[in-house]
User: What shape does this take?
Amino acid sequence: MSGNKVNHHLFIRENKPVSFSEQTLDKIRQLVKRYPEGQQKSAVLPVLHIAQQENGGYLSVDMMDYVASLLELKPIEVYEVASFYSMFFLEKTGRYVIEVCQTAPCAFCGGDDLMEYLEEKLGVKNGETTSDGLFTLRGVECLGGCGNAPVMQVNTAFNEFMTKEKVDRLIHELKEEAGKGLISGTKWEEEFS
Ligand code: FES
Assistant: This one.
């Protein structure tokens, strides 16, 4: 996924010391070893995934600088990658990140209406997080399921042929799930689609 439509800003410098555990560093060394000598730059995507996970779901400037130092890259090279791919978040997100595909096939099949509906239902605009910290809403480019438009993704769960009714059930289900302290976002589709 790339070409994120959300306007990210690289403003989250927390000035906190950032470091990985020896175990994580070892995982990164293994990743780097997969690439030819001097090509450690190629490991930047998987390393950023690890960094995002370790950093509570987003990449602060401090964390990106740390990744740059580990891979012997210029910080700007890491910023460029992190800001290009929509799977990386440059600011804190809600517990559930709802991504609505806004590319033409989905837009023509109701994707734009879904985005409007979600904005209204959640009381946030594209790119924003609800005040309870539960949902971040964002429009993204093609999610790769064009034949089953309109498509939206919630965390890692793919939801196809979406309708307003399905959105209602999904939001209800996720709120219930969050209320019970469960962590998921992946089981909804199996149950309701
Ligand atoms: S256009 Fe929406 S998934 Fe491809």
